[in-house]
Amino acid sequence: MEGFTLLLFCLALLNNVQGDTVRDTINTLQSIKDGQIIVSPGKTYALGFFSPGNSKNRYVGIWYNEVSTQTVVWVANRDNPLTDSSGVLKLDETGVLVLLNHNKSVIWSSNTTRSVRYPVAKLLDSGNFIVQDNNNNNDPKYLLWQSFDFPGDTILPGQKFGRNLVTGLNRYMSSWNNSDDPSKGVFSYQIDVNGYPQFILRKGTFKRYRFGSWNGIQFSGAPMLKQSAITRFNFISDEEELYFSFELTNKSVFHRMVLTTDGFINGTYWNNDGKVWNLHARIPVDDCDNYDKCGAYASCNINNIPPCNCLDGFIPKTADIYGGCVRRTSLTCHGDRFLKLSGLKLPDTERSWFDRNTSLEDCRILCMKNCSCTAYAALDVSKGPTGCLLWFGDLLDIRELTDVDEDIYIRMAETEIEAIERKQSHKSNIWKPGTAFISCALFVGILSLCLTFIIYRRWKTWHKEKNKGNLERDDNVINEHEKEDLELPMFELSTITSATNNFSPDNKLGEGGFGSVYKGILNDGGEIAVKRLSKNSKQGLQEFKNEVMHIAKLQHRNLVRLLGYCTQAEERLLIYEFMPNKSLDSFIFDENKSMLLDWPRRLLIINGIARGLLYLHQDSRHRIVHRDLKAGNVLLDSEMNPKISDFGLARSFGGNEIEATTKHVVGTYGYLPPEYIIDGAYSTKSDVFSFGVLILEIVSGKRNKGFCHQDNLLAHVWRLFTEGKCSKIVDGTIIDSLNLSKALRLIHVGLLCVQLSPDDRPNMSSVVLMLSSESALPQPNLPGFFTSTSMAGDSSSSSSYKQYTNNDMTISIMTPR
Q: Which of 554, 560, 678, 802 lies 20 to 30 angstroms, CA to CA, from 151?
């Protein structure tokens, strides 16, 4: 024992004698003090203490050793600086790196899930700082920790950038706050695993730029990043990992990817002759790279004025050139065809499905069979078009690019495609006219415009006189038999226009895809909310009737009350009781207003929604499935009591019916269960899934869409639940009023409701019992935040990683809203 102690003393003495002698490792008997460095074996990188820019704070970082201008590529304590030069970096006996200040307090530390007998930390020539077992330094399984897993604003050659699907590790970039402060800034760049994986540059929670999907050769939105004799790019997507990396054929060149403080991704290399970093790639490139610059179904071309144009078969949605486009001809589902477009950055894949083993023809068939599928494309074009990528919902963030050799097939009505084909054929056969013909055509055109203007003015005058004081009800909306069965009053349009001050903007409460909602005051002083469907509303006639027919006969304190309707002068109006506190989402997702919902109030809201759903599923005359339950469709009265609203998508079951299927998938992504999105199967268990999402949103205060974490909300909650860390899920604004045991029980119930299999989910009567009792709860199975089941059915591929939540978008193809 004395001999071993003497050996340790001698080693420590040798370390002190060496002083600033350069080495590439530290062990448990060594440390790095401010002023000392370690250097990689090839003298490429150095690790030590530094101060950025004009700051006096001290940080531990890695920089290029042979570059004259200090260029930092990684910072350990970026969010916790040292205020003086007393810092010491050590490796403890468990293999954890610790940074200590003058008080011996830990400023920063690495982490590890296991320990080894002889840990050592080493700086590699790749720029990676690792901790491993010194006796097994060539075996990856003995790697305890590495800096490459925790990038800052820089990615180096060979460094993986993406997600480990097994451990949940998310390797993403985040900008410095400024040149003097390496703490996390407002810009981040990371992989989004919703749908087909893609890389997104964000400013806060807002998308700034999207790389586009990987097609086996390049990213469709970044053609400058393609394989070359100098650079090789890799994109790996399998059961365990999703990541991007790049390699250099010339290892002597210093190359890095940097996320700048102003939100650009710069590819730079060191010019040793000029002693400067040269820029060879910068993203975003131009204004068309800004995310969704032109809106849905529109493409951006930087060389055009204006830059935005609708895709073939689409027309502008509004007068705003950046407002997106809508279909010229509505889809008919099975009578549709696909229009092939080339030279485009493929649309946002957040709401997509993919499979690597499906052929392009089978991909077309799959899309045709699903009426919610709006487009398809090959997944990989490196060896001919293979694999399948399907889009659901609007096609967003499209731009024209000359260097993209990839096709997309967009769903359109057959008549629309025929019109496009005739137009293209006509263009190709037109004989170039002479000057006289052009002059004649111009004269005829001007004359036609004048005549059209005169006719329009006369029609407008006639139409105005026709409607003045003679507003007829549209009996085609709801027939006489239905009216008798309804026992619901029809309001005069004049009454509604008077109550809403002629639909004044000052009376507007909100708007959505269906139109707008206005506050109104009747002659007797009663307050109402008027839902006015726009003329080009996404909520069609059937949904209007659906809501009137369903909600008119429903009577429950947790369901919003329909007071009447109006169908005069082509108007479609629904009149509800007025809810002064608007919708639940305006509270729980608002940083300031969320504090108004303390824990007891949130508990009452959850119980109220549960009772309302139980009434729909069990106690009403017909079993009703809501199909669009979400925070935005839960209204709050003056006492903050919840009332379920918006029954436009609801469906009723009669007799012993318990389930139905549809090819017209409607609802809101983020709240829809997987079996409904993929197979169109819906039942009361669909609403149970939506309710489970609502529970977790109310408890956490986080929206399923835009959840700022490496996982979506369901995956995040599931991971913390399995790790026994459920207390981290709870909204921090309600800690003071919280009953922790009750909150943990609610989280448990929420996870039971969002289980992947509908058979595993409880019915609402069981849910209400769980919420009101302290009985033991069963263990939940995997939530429906992803599934490896192939939509193609026969495919055995398990690489089709699909997520179905984290998207708060109402979807509907055949029955839009």
A: 802
